[in-house]
Amino acid sequence: MALVVQKYGGSSVAEASRIKRVAQRIVATKKAGNDVVVIVSAMGDTTDELLELAQQVTPLPPGRELDMLLTAGERISMALLAMAIANLGHEARSFTGSQAGVITDSTHGKARIIDVTPGRIQEALQVGQIAIVAGFQGVSQDTKDITTLGRGGSDTTAVALAAALDADVCEIYTDVDGIFTADPRIVPAARQIPRISYDEAMEMAACGAKILHLRCVEYARRFGLPIHVRSSFSSREGTWVVSDPNNEGIEMEQPIISGVAHDRSEAKITVVGVPDKVGEAAAIFRTLADVEINIDMIVQNISAAATGRTDISFTLPSADGTVAVTALKRIQEEIGFEKLLFDDQIGKVSLVGAGMRSHPGVTAKFFGALADAGVNIEMISTSEIRISVIVGQDEVDSAVTAAHRAFDLDVDQVEAVIYGGTGR
Amino acid sequence: MALVVQKYGGSSVAEASRIKRVAQRIVATKKAGNDVVVIVSAMGDTTDELLELAQQVTPLPPGRELDMLLTAGERISMALLAMAIANLGHEARSFTGSQAGVITDSTHGKARIIDVTPGRIQEALQVGQIAIVAGFQGVSQDTKDITTLGRGGSDTTAVALAAALDADVCEIYTDVDGIFTADPRIVPAARQIPRISYDEAMEMAACGAKILHLRCVEYARRFGLPIHVRSSFSSREGTWVVSDPNNEGIEMEQPIISGVAHDRSEAKITVVGVPDKVGEAAAIFRTLADVEINIDMIVQNISAAATGRTDISFTLPSADGTVAVTALKRIQEEIGFEKLLFDDQIGKVSLVGAGMRSHPGVTAKFFGALADAGVNIEMISTSEIRISVIVGQDEVDSAVTAAHRAFDLDVDQVEAVIYGGTGR
Question: Which of A219, A411, B151, B311 is a good FRET partner for B197, with 20 to 30 A between their CA atoms?
Fold first, then answer.
């Protein structure tokens, strides 16, 4: 008998009929002889509706009360799901994050899990019940106040509980069949990836792939917990995220590149004419850190000898653009830079693949494909298993399509053996 | 400095603008130098909407999960109210029933409060915060599951917390100015009652007056806690419910009758031709108790000597009619009664007044007034401070109007001294 943790997102439980379908899937898993723990998000647009209500009351809701408000969303969906399971003749019990033992720090709105003590979940499983747990929420260790985990919180709840319960697998249900080699809306020939490593999945998440959140994959990697990303609308195998996708003795042709991710949510700021002195760059990025802005890529031009000045470009979430520009203008005189350029018409395209460690020439092939497609590269950054470029936002689609084809990822180019894995 | 507990019902917080207005009232109470604890119901129709969602999922939701679902309603309203107070520059903290220490038994849907341990509320008050508490909910002592208190639950939360905190007053806010001598929609000359005893308020509640729930008044009487029923739409004094409304040395002409209550929600069942043997009536009412039906009035005719048979009539909530009739039909043969009559076109009209203890002739005057108005009396029941009659449903208005006038309750008949009290 296995212990299966399943997580269903908001769209999977957006209305009563969908909740009933999810209940059937849960009961089927239980009937197959598994213990089942289910993590559920708020129904559909509930969270947005609650945020809208809060905005009607005050433009600046206190974090503690906003968390209290938002956690009503999962409370509704988890109770309804438990009822739907009861209606199928199986016993289910719903638990809040606090009841499930999700202990966090006190940072309202983006609390971090510091401990998981799932005693009540274990008791429920021992008497044969299906446990339904509210995602996204916990209780602070110090103040006993209700907290929320922020973006991707429900996935993180699922992985953290699965790890604490020593589950055999954490299934993340979504509205697509798993992780794809590229966004199928851009590349119709994109294919679903049967198995991928934690490292690759983290790079994909960090580069804009929306299926799995970085934080949840990080957590799973730390505990060596297999994640199975699959569709709540079909029973097909999805994508397995594991430590070593090729450790099962099955000979398969490993692709060099696992996938092409893209992200249109960033903007680029260029600080023009920075005096080329020690500490100037540090001052710029300390200023940005002080206003809590996460920088992604950074490029510094070689200093022009004639002027003793350089340009520094970096990318950041577009939404933080105004705050960043305001903060930098405040230190313009002190630093002595000439001006700021702001461009939110950019996009990031990233190649991710553990295979590139052992395959030189990936960069050349990638850049060649982009050149052939007439795409101009504005910035470059690389990690051991990733190459990212910044391009014009209207060139993102061409860049993704060109890279996907260049690395033989299109469905019609792939050998059948790629699909040969048994899943797990 | 006084400790004031305020309770706001669902219509007082039905939308963001009303929540903001309630917040202003709370802040005004705080600014006047009081410690303030607020109990709040779910917004407007939220509870009905959640029940509708549950019905879409299953016709028979388990009680534990229904309670989990419904308690999301107060969670939303209390967080929004705390935000609205914060927006006015005052510190507020919202607390669930569980966090506020409302400990109940495990009877989901109609749990009884068995203890109140408001440590977190007291801590909040000590540091100058306004405490906002979810009404209607608690946590079971045995299972630590979330429970709801059933009808009138928020009023009961308010009175129970006020008693545990040794509050100076429990203010129940509603959409009218207090308790009236009759329903102003029927008797335009009805007037607001400035002060009323617990006993009278309980009889009024039991007889269909909808302002205060019986259970909440019972609780307040046990602890000698003054209740002030008032409108959330005005700052006028409302109705004070106290142990002795006349104990302040103010000479006032005490009316014999405090008010006329009515109730159209009952039905009457007559069991015709019951053999007049020992134990037959007991068997009938045990059968009804077994299916959890609350009987109100009972009348048994004198047995007709010729037949050795009698008729037994009783009233019960109309909604329970089908269940009662079905249960009685099952024992028809065993008991040997002839037939059942069911009538839901009835209404109950009740005179309530502590003064009737010392005023003989109230019954005669009441019945005379009804006779003059052409109203036929079907059943009668009395207590020390109440006389109730069952009449045809279409005669309820005439009966209430006639009784109200007969006992000099109409506004234009009342001496000004009636209004002379200072409230408290």
Answer: B151
- Residue closest to B262 by CA, chosen among B190, B192, B176, B204: B204
Element (H, E) at B40: strand B35-40
Identify the CATH number of the domain in which residue B299 sits.
Answer: 3.30.70.260
Mean pLDDT value across chain B? 90
Task: Give mean pLDDT, residues A6-11.
Answer: 94
Interface contact A14, partner B, CB < 8 A: no
Same domain, A256 and A396: yes
Domain of B270? 266-343
The per-residue pLDDT for range A341-390, each reduced to its tens digit, is 999 999 999 999 888 877 778 888 999 999 999 999 988 888 888 999 99
Residue-level pLDDT at B295: 87
ipTM (interface pTM): 0.80
Q: What is the rounded CA–CA span in Å between residue A192 and residue A143?
A: 44
Distance CA B291, CA B325 (A): 11
Structural tokens at position B370: 């009804």
For position A132, which CATH number holds? Answer: 3.40.1160.10
pLDDT at B152 over 90: no
A237 domain residue, yes or no: no
Residue B54: closest C-alpha in chain A: A80
pLDDT tens sequence across A57-73: 999 999 999 999 999 99
**Mean local confidence (pLDDT), B92-104:** 97
At a CB cut-off of 8 Å and minimum separation 6, what does B167 contact?
B3, B4, B5, B37, B161, B225
Q: Which one, of A70, A99, A346, lies nearest residue B80 by Cα?
A: A70
Are B292 and B163 part of one and the same domain?
Answer: no
- CATH number of the domain where residue A420 is located: 3.30.2130.10
Clarify whether residues B359 and B332 are in a common domain.
no
Taking a contact as any Cβ pair under 8 Å apart, which residues of chain B between 89 and 148 contact chain A?
A: 92-94, 99, 120, 144
Tell me how many helices (H) and strands (E) chain A has: 13, 20
Task: Please check whether residue B246 lies inside any domain of the structure.
Answer: no
> Quick check: B88 contacting A, CB < 8 Å?
no
pLDDT in tens, B121-149: 999 999 999 999 999 999 999 999 999 99
Q: pLDDT at residue A279 above 90?
A: no
Q: What are phi and psi of A402, to 5 degrees?
A: -65, -45
Q: Is 70 exceeded by the pLDDT of residue A317?
A: yes
Give yes or no: residues B9 and B65 share one domain: yes
Number of domains in chain A: 2
Last residue of a domain, one of B343, B363, B390: B343
pLDDT for residue B63: 95
User: For B12-63, how does the pLDDT look when each residue is reduced to its tens digit (9 = 90+)?
Assistant: 999 999 999 999 999 999 999 999 999 999 999 999 999 999 999 999 999 9
Q: Is A84 on the interface with B (CB under 8 A)?
A: yes
My answer on whether B111 and B128 are in the same domain is yes
Choose the closest CB to A65 out of B56, B58, B82.
B82
Residue B151 scores a pLDDT above 90: no
Question: Of A131, A155, A175, which residue constitutes the final position of a domain?
Answer: A175
Rounded-to-integer distance, Cα A217 and Cα B336, Å: 73
Query: In degrees to the nearest 10, what's the CA dihedral of B221, B222, B226, B227?
Result: -60
* Domain presence at residue B424: no
Please check whether residues B388 and B278 belong to one and the same domain. no
Among candidates A19, A68, A86 on the partner chain, residue whose Cβ is nearest the Cβ of B75:
A68
Residues B148 and B57 reside in one and the same domain? yes
- Let me know if residue B248 belongs to a domain: no
3-state helix, strand, coil in chain B (%, to 5): 40, 25, 35
Q: Domain check: are B143 and B10 in the same one?
A: yes
- Which residues of chain A lie closer than 8 angstroms to B86, CB-CB? 58, 60-62, 65
Q: Is the pLDDT of residue B418 over 50?
A: no
Contacts of B65 in chain A (CB under 8 A): 79-80, 82-83, 86, 92, 94
